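Tutorial handout. Part one gives the primary structure; part two gives the three-dimensional structure as tokens.
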Amino acid sequence: MNNLDKFYNGIVTQDNKLRTTTYSQLTDFLQNPSSSVSSENLDKLIDGLANWVNSSNFKVSLHGLTVLYLLVNRLGEAFRPFVPNVLESTVSRLGDMHDDVRDAAQDLLLALMYPASSPSFVFDRIWPQASTHKQFRVREGICVCLQRLLNNYGAKSLQLSKIVPSLLKLLDDSNAQVRDSALTTLAEIYRHVGEKVRTDIMKKGLPHSKLAMITNKFDDIHTSGDMLPTALNSHMTSSVSKYGVGDEVDHTRPPRNASSSVSRSRTKGVTSAGSSKAGAGALSEDMFTKSFDQVPKIHILSGRDVEDKLQHAMSLLSNSNTDWEKRVQEVKVCRAIVLEGGANYDEFYTSLRQMETAFMLAVKDLRSQVVREACITIAFYAQNLESRLDHFCEVILPSLIMLVSNSAKVMATSGSTALKFIIQHVHSQRLIPILLEHTKSKSNVIRRFCYELIESLLELWQTHDIERHVTSLQQAIKSGISDADSESRIFARKAFWLFSQHFKQHADALYETLDASRQKQLQGELSNASSCNSVNSQPSSRLPTSFNDRVDSAPHTSNFR
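Part two.
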């Protein structure tokens, strides 16, 4: 029995010690892509995990939320029938006194929206209860959840006009944190939808003082230039008139984020590792960003237009007999679609899933021109679609990593540059196991580059984006510190200092397992390295005084900025 059923007794038990042991084994199992998540008792297992979430022991509750998050991401839409089973317990954890538990509950709610079901399926069920919950942290947390929902899935994922009246009531909440969160949420809706929200609120007959507070907040956002393109061009989508489409659309995929309409001039600086020694034929981030808008002129008139163009591109890219120049042209068309606002349509995301295989073939193409344009487009997508590109990146990442060791410099640097854009912009915890697996590669070039990416990831990502892989990261860094390749060891040592900022205790434990020579190298790295953050936490008593003193004074620069 090598599936979920082998954990049955440990999940349904009331013994917290056994639950803790099962948690460690179960998380390792679920993080292994080759493990089977089939079960003859899946409903009982999920109910058992829901009981974990409801536990009065916050560690057990956190473990339950974490395991459910991993399980939802493994099962995808197959989890949809069980979503109602865990909603109530998850919402209640929004009111937990521990930040880690509340954050884990937020993450699970978003996962239940996608990939398990849809934003409207989940949020319409939890909003009435959560927005009037007796615990103020739940009322505050559901507002935060709505803000995250909007930024992940866009304004079309819900019929927001039905939610605004409840938010207006929360402006009179007895708790100041709830009032502030409600106002921030209204502002976020305005940022996505635009003046239609203001017009609707002005018809509600609010007291002058409250109305002035809201309109001033809206004015500040508008003046700051932080409005999203869909708000500024709301007349282009009929659904915006109701602040979203609610149940009229089945969002079984992540809907567009309103921010997906991008400017041709929008770029974020990313510094390529090794660019100083790249040499002839190598590509840099500057070359990539300058190529982003070098695309054929196209016109997007509708979602169907987007779908047709991407389907045509997919058919040509998937056919190895297609002339390579035509394949290059179609890859450029994929960028042009986004530049022309195609990512504002839900059809874009449906087709993007179908394009994953075509891009994987393009990255593996024997023609360097095809590989180059494919990597430029992937980098462009990563910069502009961000977290909405997570599944695409999960599929394409192994192929990009293999490019790094290619003997053709244009191919190797195309792959490495695309990877750096992904790490910069797509903060998805599902990418971490792929990177860690490739630190075991027989190729020292691949190992070295993966450790460099891990270093950058630890610097750029938030702790909650990586904490589910803390043990695996700890082990990978330990292996890297002793790697046969000297440059891999350097990047691993730099990664250690950044890791220590996120997980001080784990870093302390790792340090203690190293022999004296490795510890000395780590301390010596501080005096030479330029990519370590200063550590703000109190030094651990388990480390030598010289170790902690030097960590606290470590300099900070970024390989990506």
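Part three, for discussion. The two ends are 49 Å apart (CA to CA). The chain has a mean pLDDT of 83.
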